[in-house]
UniProtKB/TrEMBL annotation:
This is non-specific serine/threonine protein kinase. Residues 49-60 have a biased composition (Polar residues). One of its GO terms (cellular component) is membrane. It is found in: Membrane. Residues 1-62 are annotated as: Disordered. It comes from the Eukaryota. GO terms for molecular function: protein serine/threonine kinase activity. Keywords: Disulfide bond, Glycoprotein, Kinase, Membrane, Receptor, Signal, Transferase, Transmembrane, Transmembrane helix. Residues 405-460 form the TNFR-Cys domain. It catalyses: L-threonyl-[protein] + ATP = O-phospho-L-threonyl-[protein] + ADP + H(+); L-seryl-[protein] + ATP = O-phospho-L-seryl-[protein] + ADP + H(+). The chain crosses the membrane at residues 494-515. Disulfide bonds join C442-C460. InterPro entries: RCC1/BLIP-II (IPR009091), TNFR/NGFR_Cys_rich_reg (IPR001368).
């Protein structure tokens, strides 16, 4: 069966923004691992993202300039330095982004085979509808259960074995997993700047808890990648902990543990300021030096680490998922599944016509899967940002395939809405399903015309089709005199139509009741006249 196709939105931008070239450096030497910082704080840094005190005071910039570069180079240096410290890494999902000069996106398609499709910068895509690049051929990438993006590479969990598999733009057929971990099954995986961490256990098992394995991804001098075991992320205090999910950044990984709470580890974990956090989180995303999570209790976002990359998150808004960019975070709102971002971004570029089931961000581009039709949609964080990404035309999976029931407040995706006769499920096994969070409200300009059920999310209808007072409040039409007059006219017209129909029906019934009686009277009259005529004629003949 062919993969379902649809029209996708493509990005175009003619701006010329210079990006720094990758600095190839050996990995940092092993250092004692710090698990917790001594203080817990939520950053409320309100400084401009274009000002970085560390960059301004550093006697030598990362690009080899002296302490006193020419004045005309200072703004570009500040901007480039901020990019270097602010790259983000998303959490595991059906769509993920790889960062850096060799960045690209990948997503699990909606064919029912859990196949992977990838697309890169400047219209390099594995989609048949786009210009082809052999290095991104989806046929070289195995079927995946989940994806996670790092710096120049992507990792996933194989759909048939729960084993880890990692690849990059220049070698999608090369597995960047050390031999000692290739046969291990994992239930969760995360990719950071130059390392990967994964939670042991079968992905499709109801028990998704396990210990964590980590390994390094090493950039070689020829710009290729390799992997190796490393002690950088090993700590005896962490090795005995049981994790449910993890997320990774630059030199650190953090995860939710079985006993409850958030634990961070790695050589740079102390800089996050995460210590004594007992709260659980349903979603995590990390920047290169920051971490944000969605609280299981309130649904609100809490962040730690370098405030330049996330600034102050929204207050009083519930989210269901997160994605991190270079200088911004984005999340899907719990109530209407709309995308909301904070940090350095242009809100006018975020699509408003549809909610999203899942999103992923690279440095400056965010891509998501629209919940209404499973089409990929991509947009820039800022109008001047580059590069250009060309998303493929295939429909993509709205979530991850999981066993068991969906539970309260969620619905199981129904593949029949795609109108593909042979497609009964988006998962490789019949006992799996994609569970998504129910929406309550709709995006601006739409109203919920039906509520969420076991196999379908609430349906959003355009406010232009609002015909009665049940949707006036949502569509902000309740105070419009014109709408009231229109409603009154429609009501009067309806009354006239019903009244006319009722009157006509009554007349017809009366007519049908009176017609047989009139006919009967006429027949009796004619019979009487005939009898009288016969009697009169007979009498006359008798007298004669």
């Amino acid at each position: 069966m062919a993969t379902p196709t649809f029209t996708a939105h493509h990005l175009h931008d003619n701006s010329s923004l210079v990006t720094p070239q990758r600095t190839l450096a050996p990995p940092p030497p092993p250092a004692p691992t710090t698990i917790f910082s001594s203080s817990l704080h939520e950053s409320t840094d309100s400084h401009s993202p274009n000002r970085n005190p560390q960059t301004m005071t550093n006697p030598k910039t990362p690009y080899g300039f002296s302490n006193s570069p020419p004045l005309f180079l200072i703004p570009p240096l500040i901007f480039l330095s901020l990019i270097e410290i602010a790259s983000g890494f998303g959490s595991m999902g059906p769509i993920s982004a790889s960062f850096g000069d060799n960045g690209f996106f990948c997503a699990i398609d909606a064919s029912g085979k859990q196949a992977v499709i990838c697309w890169g910068k400047n219209a390099t895509s594995s989609s048949p509808s786009s210009s082809s690049n052999p290095s991104l051929s989806s046929s070289q990438i195995p079927s995946m259960a989940a994806l996670a993006g790092g710096d120049g590479f992507l990792c996933g969990i194989l759909s048939n074995s729960s084993q880890a598999y990692c690849w990059n733009l220049n070698g999608s057929s090369t597995d960047l997993v050390p031999e000692s971990f290739k046969t291990t099954a994992y239930s969760h995986i995360s990719a950071g700047k130059n390392h990967v961490c994964a939670v042991r256990g079968s992905y499709y098992s109801d028990n998704d808890l396990g210990t964590v394995d980590c390994w390094e991804i090493v950039w070689k001098s020829d710009n290729s990648l390799s992997s190796k075991q490393s002690t950088l992320f090993y700590d005896p205090n962490v090795s005995s902990l049981v994790f449910k999910k993890v997320v990774s950044g630059d030199g650190f990984s953090c995860g939710v543990v079985r006993e409850g709470g958030l634990v961070c580890f790695g050589p740079k974990s102390a800089g996050l300021g995460v210590s004594g956090v007992s709260e659980n989180f349903v979603a995590l995303a990390s920047g290169i030096g920051s971490l944000c999570g969605v609280s299981e209790v309130s649904g609100e976002v809490k962040c730690w680490g370098n405030g330049n990359s996330f600034l102050t998150p929204p207050v009083g808004i519930g989210f269901i998922s997160l994605a991190a960019g270079a200088q911004h975070f984005c999340g899907i709102r719990e109530n209407n599944h709309a995308v909301e971002c904070w940090g350095s971004f242009n809100s006018s570029l975020i699509p408003k016509g549809s909610g999203f089931s899942t999103i992923a961000s690279s440095e400056f581009v965010t891509c998501g899967i629209r919940e209404v039709d499973l089409v990929l949609d991509c947009w820039f964080a800022n109008i001047s940002s580059q590069p250009d990404y060309d998303p493929p035309l295939q429909l993509c999976s709205p979530g991850l395939c999981t066993p068991g029931s969906c539970g309260e407040g969620k619905f199981a995706f129904n593949a029949s809405i795609l109108n593909e006769p042979d497609l009964t499920s988006l998962c490789v096994r019949k006992d799996l399903k994609i569970c998504s969070r129910c929406g309550v409200n709709c995006s601006e300009g739409f109203f919920p015309s039906s509520t969420c059920s076991e196999n379908a999310d609430r349906v959003c209808t355009a406010c232009s089709l609002c015909q009665n007072s049940s949707c006036w409040d949502v569509c902000k039409l309740q105070s419009s005199p014109e709408m009231q007059r229109k409603h009154d006219r429609q009501f009067h017209r309806l009354v006239l139509i019903i009244g006319s129909s009722a009157s006509s029906f009554v007349l017809i019934v009366i007519g049908w009741c009176l017609l047989p009686r009139d006919c009967h009277k006429k027949q009796r009259r004619e019979k009487t006249i005939s009898v009288l005529y016969w009697q009169t004629g007979h009498r006359e003949r008798h007298e004669w």
